[in-house]
Specification:
The protein is an all-alpha fold. It has a single domain (about 5-165), classed as RNA polymerase sigma factor, region 2, helix turn helix motif (Rna Polymerase Sigma Factor, Chain: A, Orthogonal Bundle), CATH 1.10.1740. The protein has helices spanning about 5-25, 30-45, 55-80, 85-95, 105-115, 115-125, 135-140, 145-165. The chain starts with a helix and ends with a helix.
Length: about 170
């Protein structure tokens, strides 16, 4: 892949990739940083890209791994502050100046942010990005059956969490 092709790839997928990451990490600044880091890593790894998957799948995999790495760091930081993950989720969503949703969307975002990383990832890719399970499997390296189970469990948890907010 040449520089021109890479630039076209960046132009074509930047917005979709941003929203993919934003749904996982929950705020604009982190999502923006991760997208930039994704393109830097992809550019550096370009000579080793063998084309076994599509370039978009390759970018999604890099971005997903970067987002999950950030979530792990945040979990450690929260534990070191003796802060619950729920409190951290509340803080991330409430402090994001770029969040422009109504109260129902805020509750949904908080419920999604409380999910375990893998369930959050699968839920966001399926619900927001409307990706087929086969595409999610290619990005995550997980079987379609396991993804369907994760999505179902995540959806049930979200229903319960959102319902609690309205009770």
């Amino acid at each position: 892949m040449e520089e021109r092709e890479f630039n076209e790839l960046v132009q074509k997928y930047s917005e979709q990739l941003y929203w993919h990451v934003r749904n996982i990490v929950g705020n604009h600044e982190d999502a923006d940083d991760i997208v930039q880091e994704t393109y830097i890593k992809a550019w550096k790894a370009l000579p080793t890209f063998r084309g076994e998957s599509s370039p978009s799948t390759w970018l999604w995999r890099i971005a997903t791994n970067e987002a999950l790495a950030l979530l792990r760091k945040q979990r450690v930081r929260a534990a070191l502050r003796f802060e619950s993950l729920d409190a951290a989720a509340e803080r991330v969503i409430d402090s994001d100046p770029w969040f422009n949703g109504d109260e129902a969307q805020r509750r949904l975002a908080k419920a999604i942010y409380r999910l375990p990383d893998k369930q959050r990832l699968v839920f966001c890719m399926r619900y927001f990005e409307e990706l087929p399970y086969e595409s999610i499997a290619e990005v995550t390296g997980t079987s379609v059956g396991a993804l369907k189970a994760s999505f179902h469990i995540a959806a049930e948890k979200i229903k319960g969490l959102v319902q609690l907010e309205f009770d």
